[in-house]
Protein backbone atom coordinates (compact mmCIF):
# COMPACT_ATOMS: atom_id res chain seq x y z
CA UNK A 1 0.00 0.00 0.00
CA UNK A 2 1.37 3.41 -0.97
CA UNK A 3 1.22 5.63 2.12
CA UNK A 4 3.66 8.39 1.13
CA UNK A 5 2.07 11.22 -0.85
CA UNK A 6 4.40 13.55 -2.73
CA UNK A 7 2.57 16.78 -3.61
CA UNK A 8 4.49 19.75 -5.07
CA UNK A 9 7.50 20.05 -2.72
CA UNK A 10 5.95 18.28 0.28
CA UNK A 11 5.67 14.65 1.37
CA UNK A 12 3.05 13.30 3.75
CA UNK A 13 2.23 9.92 5.31
CA UNK A 14 -1.44 9.17 4.65
CA UNK A 15 -3.47 6.14 5.71
CA UNK A 16 -7.06 5.05 5.28
CA UNK A 17 -8.97 4.47 8.50
CA UNK A 18 -8.74 2.16 10.30
CA UNK A 19 -5.14 1.35 9.41
CA UNK A 20 -4.40 -2.13 8.10
CA UNK A 21 -7.94 -3.18 7.18
CA UNK A 22 -7.96 -2.38 3.48
CA UNK A 23 -6.86 -3.86 0.18
CA UNK A 24 -3.17 -3.00 -0.18
CA UNK A 25 -3.85 -1.45 -3.59
CA UNK A 26 -5.98 1.28 -1.99
CA UNK A 27 -4.47 4.58 -0.86
CA UNK A 28 -5.78 7.56 1.10
CA UNK A 29 -5.67 10.11 -1.77
CA UNK A 30 -6.30 10.25 -5.49
CA UNK A 31 -5.72 12.48 -8.51
CA UNK A 32 -8.77 14.62 -7.62
CA UNK A 33 -7.07 15.58 -4.35
CA UNK A 34 -3.82 16.31 -6.17
CA UNK A 35 -5.49 18.45 -8.83
CA UNK A 36 -7.29 20.78 -6.43
CA UNK A 37 -4.29 21.14 -4.09
CA UNK A 38 -1.98 21.99 -6.99
CA UNK A 39 -4.48 24.53 -8.33
CA UNK A 40 -5.05 26.18 -4.97
CA UNK A 41 -1.38 26.52 -4.06
CA UNK A 42 -0.34 27.72 -7.52
CA UNK A 43 -3.06 30.35 -7.94
CA UNK A 44 -2.50 33.58 -6.01
CA UNK A 45 -5.94 34.89 -7.05
CA UNK A 46 -7.72 32.26 -4.93
CA UNK A 47 -8.55 33.60 -1.48
CA UNK A 48 -7.71 31.16 1.29
CA UNK A 49 -9.26 33.25 4.06
CA UNK A 50 -11.58 30.97 6.05
CA UNK A 51 -11.03 27.98 3.75
CA UNK A 52 -13.89 25.48 3.86
CA UNK A 53 -13.44 21.85 2.71
CA UNK A 54 -16.39 19.55 2.09
CA UNK A 55 -16.13 15.74 1.83
CA UNK A 56 -12.45 15.17 2.55
CA UNK A 57 -12.51 11.35 2.52
CA UNK A 58 -9.33 10.45 4.41
CA UNK A 59 -7.69 13.76 5.24
CA UNK A 60 -5.54 14.38 2.16
CA UNK A 61 -6.93 17.89 1.73
CA UNK A 62 -6.88 18.70 5.45
CA UNK A 63 -3.23 17.66 5.60
CA UNK A 64 -1.97 19.30 2.38
CA UNK A 65 -3.84 22.56 3.11
CA UNK A 66 -3.29 22.47 6.87
CA UNK A 67 -1.27 25.71 6.87
CA UNK A 68 -4.45 27.52 5.73
CA UNK A 69 -6.34 26.50 8.91
CA UNK A 70 -9.34 25.02 7.08
CA UNK A 71 -12.68 23.96 8.47
CA UNK A 72 -13.63 20.47 7.24
CA UNK A 73 -17.23 19.30 6.83
CA UNK A 74 -18.03 15.63 6.35
CA UNK A 75 -20.98 13.31 6.91
CA UNK A 76 -18.64 10.46 7.81
CA UNK A 77 -17.44 9.66 11.32
CA UNK A 78 -14.78 7.42 9.74
CA UNK A 79 -13.57 10.33 7.59
CA UNK A 80 -13.32 12.49 10.71
CA UNK A 81 -11.19 9.83 12.39
CA UNK A 82 -9.00 9.50 9.29
CA UNK A 83 -8.43 13.26 9.25
CA UNK A 84 -7.43 13.26 12.93
CA UNK A 85 -5.22 10.19 12.42
CA UNK A 86 -3.38 11.67 9.43
CA UNK A 87 -2.90 15.10 10.98
CA UNK A 88 -1.34 13.41 14.00
CA UNK A 89 0.83 11.18 11.79
CA UNK A 90 2.22 14.30 10.10
CA UNK A 91 2.52 16.33 13.32
CA UNK A 92 -0.08 18.85 12.20
CA UNK A 93 -2.84 20.63 14.10
CA UNK A 94 -6.19 19.04 13.45
CA UNK A 95 -8.69 21.27 11.62
CA UNK A 96 -12.06 22.24 12.98
CA UNK A 97 -14.46 19.41 12.10
CA UNK A 98 -18.19 19.80 11.42
CA UNK A 99 -20.75 17.22 10.39
CA UNK A 100 -22.98 17.74 7.36
CA UNK A 101 -26.06 18.65 9.39
CA UNK A 102 -24.38 21.71 10.88
CA UNK A 103 -24.66 25.17 9.36
CA UNK A 104 -21.73 26.08 7.12
CA UNK A 105 -19.46 28.87 8.37
CA UNK A 106 -18.78 31.85 6.13
CA UNK A 107 -15.85 31.37 3.76
CA UNK A 108 -14.17 33.07 0.83
CA UNK A 109 -13.36 29.73 -0.83
CA UNK A 110 -15.13 26.37 -0.65
CA UNK A 111 -13.39 23.18 -1.78
CA UNK A 112 -15.93 20.46 -2.58
CA UNK A 113 -15.08 16.84 -3.38
CA UNK A 114 -17.77 15.45 -5.66
CA UNK A 115 -19.70 12.33 -4.67
CA UNK A 116 -21.90 9.95 -6.65
CA UNK A 117 -24.88 10.88 -4.48
CA UNK A 118 -26.69 13.57 -6.47
CA UNK A 119 -29.15 14.28 -3.68
CA UNK A 120 -26.32 14.93 -1.23
CA UNK A 121 -24.53 17.12 -3.79
CA UNK A 122 -27.68 19.20 -4.26
CA UNK A 123 -28.09 19.50 -0.48
CA UNK A 124 -24.51 20.79 -0.16
CA UNK A 125 -24.87 23.24 -3.06
CA UNK A 126 -28.03 24.46 -1.36
CA UNK A 127 -26.07 24.97 1.86
CA UNK A 128 -23.43 27.00 0.00
CA UNK A 129 -26.12 29.11 -1.66
CA UNK A 130 -27.38 30.13 1.80
CA UNK A 131 -24.06 31.70 2.84
CA UNK A 132 -24.43 35.40 3.55
CA UNK A 133 -21.17 36.47 1.92
CA UNK A 134 -19.94 35.91 -1.66
CA UNK A 135 -17.48 33.08 -2.19
CA UNK A 136 -15.83 31.02 -4.88
CA UNK A 137 -16.30 27.28 -5.18
CA UNK A 138 -13.81 24.78 -6.54
CA UNK A 139 -15.15 21.25 -6.88
CA UNK A 140 -12.91 18.30 -7.68
CA UNK A 141 -13.60 14.76 -8.77
CA UNK A 142 -12.98 12.02 -11.26
CA UNK A 143 -14.04 12.89 -14.82
CA UNK A 144 -16.84 10.29 -14.57
CA UNK A 145 -18.44 12.45 -11.86
CA UNK A 146 -18.35 15.68 -13.89
CA UNK A 147 -21.51 14.97 -15.87
CA UNK A 148 -24.12 17.15 -17.55
CA UNK A 149 -26.44 16.46 -14.62
CA UNK A 150 -23.83 17.57 -12.11
CA UNK A 151 -23.06 20.76 -14.04
CA UNK A 152 -26.79 21.47 -14.28
CA UNK A 153 -27.03 21.25 -10.47
CA UNK A 154 -24.16 23.72 -10.10
CA UNK A 155 -25.91 26.12 -12.49
CA UNK A 156 -29.14 25.76 -10.50
CA UNK A 157 -27.50 27.08 -7.32
CA UNK A 158 -24.38 28.99 -8.40
CA UNK A 159 -23.11 31.40 -11.07
CA UNK A 160 -20.34 31.43 -13.68
CA UNK A 161 -19.91 27.65 -13.76
CA UNK A 162 -16.88 26.47 -15.76
CA UNK A 163 -14.62 23.41 -15.79
CA UNK A 164 -10.91 22.69 -16.14
CA UNK A 165 -9.26 20.35 -18.57
CA UNK A 166 -8.94 16.76 -17.42
CA UNK A 167 -5.69 15.70 -15.77
CA UNK A 168 -5.03 12.13 -14.61
CA UNK A 169 -8.74 11.39 -15.15
CA UNK A 170 -9.86 14.19 -12.78
CA UNK A 171 -11.37 17.63 -13.39
CA UNK A 172 -12.21 20.79 -11.50
CA UNK A 173 -15.49 22.73 -11.54
CA UNK A 174 -15.34 26.45 -10.80
CA UNK A 175 -18.36 28.48 -9.66
CA UNK A 176 -19.33 31.59 -7.70
CA UNK A 177 -21.92 32.40 -5.09
CA UNK A 178 -23.11 35.98 -4.58
CA UNK A 179 -26.69 35.77 -3.18
CA UNK A 180 -28.20 37.05 -6.45
CA UNK A 181 -29.91 33.77 -7.40
CA UNK A 182 -33.31 32.53 -6.28
CA UNK A 183 -32.74 28.94 -5.15
CA UNK A 184 -35.27 26.34 -3.97
CA UNK A 185 -35.59 25.32 -0.34
CA UNK A 186 -34.11 21.96 0.58
CA UNK A 187 -36.54 19.04 0.28
CA UNK A 188 -34.70 17.04 2.95
CA UNK A 189 -35.43 15.04 4.91
CA UNK A 190 -37.61 13.15 2.42
CA UNK A 191 -40.36 10.74 3.51
CA UNK A 192 -41.17 7.33 2.02
CA UNK A 193 -44.23 5.28 2.99
CA UNK A 194 -43.77 1.74 4.30
CA UNK A 195 -47.37 0.49 4.09
CA UNK A 196 -46.66 -3.05 5.37
CA UNK A 197 -45.65 -1.57 8.72
CA UNK A 198 -47.91 1.50 8.49
CA UNK A 199 -44.83 3.69 8.89
CA UNK A 200 -43.42 6.75 7.15
CA UNK A 201 -39.63 6.61 6.94
CA UNK A 202 -37.65 9.88 6.82
CA UNK A 203 -34.13 10.20 5.39
CA UNK A 204 -31.60 13.00 5.16
CA UNK A 205 -29.79 13.68 1.88
CA UNK A 206 -26.83 11.31 2.29
CA UNK A 207 -28.78 8.25 3.48
CA UNK A 208 -28.67 5.12 1.35
CA UNK A 209 -31.94 4.25 -0.42
CA UNK A 210 -33.63 7.44 0.74
CA UNK A 211 -36.15 7.52 -2.12
CA UNK A 212 -37.49 4.00 -1.52
CA UNK A 213 -37.57 1.28 1.13
CA UNK A 214 -34.31 -0.66 0.74
CA UNK A 215 -35.21 -4.15 -0.49
CA UNK A 216 -32.44 -5.94 1.40
CA UNK A 217 -33.25 -4.16 4.64
CA UNK A 218 -36.95 -4.82 4.06
CA UNK A 219 -36.28 -8.57 3.63
CA UNK A 220 -34.55 -8.72 7.03
CA UNK A 221 -37.13 -6.42 8.65
CA UNK A 222 -39.92 -8.71 7.49
CA UNK A 223 -38.13 -11.83 8.76
CA UNK A 224 -36.89 -10.78 12.18
CA UNK A 225 -36.52 -13.44 14.89
CA UNK A 226 -38.98 -13.36 17.77
CA UNK A 227 -37.63 -10.80 20.19
CA UNK A 228 -37.53 -11.31 23.94
CA UNK A 229 -38.08 -8.92 26.81
CA UNK A 230 -35.23 -6.53 27.74
CA UNK A 231 -32.95 -7.62 24.90
CA UNK A 232 -30.12 -5.24 23.98
CA UNK A 233 -30.33 -5.03 20.19
CA UNK A 234 -28.09 -3.23 17.68
CA UNK A 235 -29.20 -2.04 14.26
CA UNK A 236 -25.67 -2.05 12.82
CA UNK A 237 -25.11 0.26 9.86
CA UNK A 238 -28.63 1.49 10.56
CA UNK A 239 -29.16 3.93 7.69
CA UNK A 240 -32.57 5.49 8.28
CA UNK A 241 -33.27 2.88 10.98
CA UNK A 242 -35.44 0.58 8.89
CA UNK A 243 -34.50 -2.66 10.66
CA UNK A 244 -34.47 -1.16 14.16
CA UNK A 245 -37.87 0.40 13.49
CA UNK A 246 -39.20 -3.02 12.60
CA UNK A 247 -37.83 -4.38 15.90
CA UNK A 248 -39.59 -1.58 17.79
CA UNK A 249 -42.77 -2.32 15.81
CA UNK A 250 -42.66 -5.98 16.87
CA UNK A 251 -41.96 -5.05 20.51
CA UNK A 252 -44.86 -2.60 20.55
CA UNK A 253 -47.27 -5.16 19.08
CA UNK A 254 -46.22 -7.75 21.66
CA UNK A 255 -46.09 -5.23 24.53
CA UNK A 256 -42.50 -5.99 25.53
CA UNK A 257 -39.61 -3.63 26.34
CA UNK A 258 -36.42 -3.83 24.29
CA UNK A 259 -33.36 -1.60 24.02
CA UNK A 260 -32.22 -0.67 20.52
CA UNK A 261 -28.92 0.94 19.55
CA UNK A 262 -28.82 2.58 16.12
CA UNK A 263 -25.20 2.72 14.90
CA UNK A 264 -23.85 4.11 11.63
CA UNK A 265 -20.79 6.01 10.43
CA UNK A 266 -23.03 8.61 8.72
CA UNK A 267 -24.23 11.48 10.90
CA UNK A 268 -27.20 11.94 8.56
CA UNK A 269 -28.14 8.27 8.86
CA UNK A 270 -28.06 8.33 12.66
CA UNK A 271 -30.16 11.50 12.78
CA UNK A 272 -32.64 10.02 10.29
CA UNK A 273 -33.08 7.01 12.57
CA UNK A 274 -33.55 9.32 15.55
CA UNK A 275 -36.21 11.33 13.70
CA UNK A 276 -38.08 8.17 12.76
CA UNK A 277 -38.12 6.77 16.28
CA UNK A 278 -39.06 10.14 17.81
CA UNK A 279 -41.98 10.63 15.44
CA UNK A 280 -43.36 7.09 15.33
CA UNK A 281 -42.21 5.29 18.48
CA UNK A 282 -42.08 8.19 20.92
CA UNK A 283 -42.92 6.05 23.95
CA UNK A 284 -39.92 3.81 23.17
CA UNK A 285 -37.46 6.65 22.49
CA UNK A 286 -35.89 6.44 25.95
CA UNK A 287 -34.99 2.79 25.26
CA UNK A 288 -33.01 3.78 22.15
CA UNK A 289 -29.52 5.16 21.53
CA UNK A 290 -28.25 6.84 18.36
CA UNK A 291 -24.50 6.96 17.75
CA UNK A 292 -22.24 7.88 14.85
CA UNK A 293 -19.31 5.50 15.14
CA UNK A 294 -17.06 3.03 13.33
CA UNK A 295 -19.00 -0.25 13.24
CA UNK A 296 -19.19 -1.52 16.86
CA UNK A 297 -16.24 0.48 18.19
CA UNK A 298 -17.06 1.75 21.67
CA UNK A 299 -19.45 -1.06 22.64
CA UNK A 300 -18.68 -3.15 25.72
CA UNK A 301 -17.46 -6.72 25.06
CA UNK A 302 -20.09 -9.41 25.67
CA UNK A 303 -22.83 -6.81 26.21
CA UNK A 304 -25.20 -7.37 23.27
CA UNK A 305 -28.00 -9.91 22.82
CA UNK A 306 -28.81 -9.42 19.16
CA UNK A 307 -27.22 -7.68 16.17
CA UNK A 308 -29.23 -6.98 13.02
CA UNK A 309 -27.08 -6.06 10.07
CA UNK A 310 -27.33 -5.13 6.39
CA UNK A 311 -23.61 -4.46 5.73
CA UNK A 312 -22.44 -1.96 3.10
CA UNK A 313 -20.07 -3.34 0.48
CA UNK A 314 -18.60 0.00 -0.57
CA UNK A 315 -16.72 2.88 1.03
CA UNK A 316 -17.06 6.16 -0.85
CA UNK A 317 -16.55 5.01 -4.47
CA UNK A 318 -14.65 1.80 -3.65
CA UNK A 319 -16.15 -1.70 -3.57
CA UNK A 320 -14.79 -3.40 -0.45
CA UNK A 321 -15.49 -6.21 2.04
CA UNK A 322 -13.48 -4.73 4.88
CA UNK A 323 -16.44 -2.97 6.53
CA UNK A 324 -18.48 -6.18 6.66
CA UNK A 325 -15.49 -8.11 7.99
CA UNK A 326 -14.95 -5.51 10.72
CA UNK A 327 -18.65 -5.73 11.63
CA UNK A 328 -18.52 -9.54 11.88
CA UNK A 329 -15.25 -9.60 13.83
CA UNK A 330 -16.42 -6.98 16.32
CA UNK A 331 -19.81 -8.71 16.64
CA UNK A 332 -18.01 -11.86 17.80
CA UNK A 333 -16.41 -9.79 20.58
CA UNK A 334 -19.45 -7.72 21.60
CA UNK A 335 -22.16 -10.40 21.63
CA UNK A 336 -22.93 -12.20 24.85
CA UNK A 337 -22.43 -15.95 25.02
CA UNK A 338 -25.41 -17.26 23.09
CA UNK A 339 -26.04 -13.88 21.47
CA UNK A 340 -26.96 -13.85 17.80
CA UNK A 341 -26.27 -11.87 14.66
CA UNK A 342 -28.58 -11.83 11.63
CA UNK A 343 -26.97 -10.62 8.41
CA UNK A 344 -28.80 -9.93 5.16
CA UNK A 345 -26.69 -9.93 2.00
CA UNK A 346 -26.97 -10.17 -1.75
CA UNK A 347 -26.62 -13.80 -2.81
CA UNK A 348 -23.48 -13.08 -4.84
CA UNK A 349 -21.55 -11.87 -1.77
CA UNK A 350 -19.47 -14.58 -0.09
CA UNK A 351 -20.23 -13.67 3.50
CA UNK A 352 -20.91 -17.30 4.46
CA UNK A 353 -17.17 -18.06 4.23
CA UNK A 354 -16.26 -15.22 6.61
CA UNK A 355 -19.12 -15.93 9.03
CA UNK A 356 -18.09 -19.58 9.26
CA UNK A 357 -14.49 -18.60 9.97
CA UNK A 358 -15.42 -16.02 12.61
CA UNK A 359 -18.35 -17.74 14.37
CA UNK A 360 -17.56 -21.38 13.59
CA UNK A 361 -20.71 -21.84 11.54
CA UNK A 362 -23.97 -20.30 10.37
CA UNK A 363 -27.53 -21.16 9.45
CA UNK A 364 -29.61 -19.76 6.61
CA UNK A 365 -32.54 -18.05 8.31
CA UNK A 366 -34.35 -17.05 5.10
CA UNK A 367 -33.49 -16.87 1.42
CA UNK A 368 -35.10 -15.59 -1.77
CA UNK A 369 -33.88 -15.13 -5.34
CA UNK A 370 -31.77 -12.08 -4.45
CA UNK A 371 -30.94 -12.12 -0.73
CA UNK A 372 -29.86 -14.50 2.02
CA UNK A 373 -30.31 -13.91 5.75
CA UNK A 374 -27.55 -15.62 7.74
CA UNK A 375 -27.89 -16.43 11.44
CA UNK A 376 -24.84 -16.96 13.66
CA UNK A 377 -24.77 -17.76 17.38
CA UNK A 378 -21.86 -16.63 19.52
CA UNK A 379 -20.30 -19.50 21.48
CA UNK A 380 -17.58 -18.16 23.75
CA UNK A 381 -14.74 -20.36 24.88
CA UNK A 382 -14.85 -21.08 28.63
CA UNK A 383 -12.22 -19.19 30.61
Automatic annotation (TrEMBL):
It comes from the Bacteria. Residues 199-375 form the Methyltransferase small domain. Residues 4-178 form the RlmG N-terminal domain. Keywords: Cytoplasm, Methyltransferase, rRNA processing, S-adenosyl-L-methionine, Transferase. It comes from Psychrosphaera saromensis. CDD domains: AdoMet_MTases. GO terms for cellular component: cytoplasm. This is Uncharacterized protein. SUPFAM superfamilies: S-adenosyl-L-methionine-dependent methyltransferases. InterPro entries: DNA_methylase_N6_adenine_CS, RLMG, RlmG_N, RsmC/RlmG, SAM-dependent_MTases_sf, Small_mtfrase_dom. GO terms for molecular function: nucleic acid binding; rRNA (guanine-N2-)-methyltransferase activity.
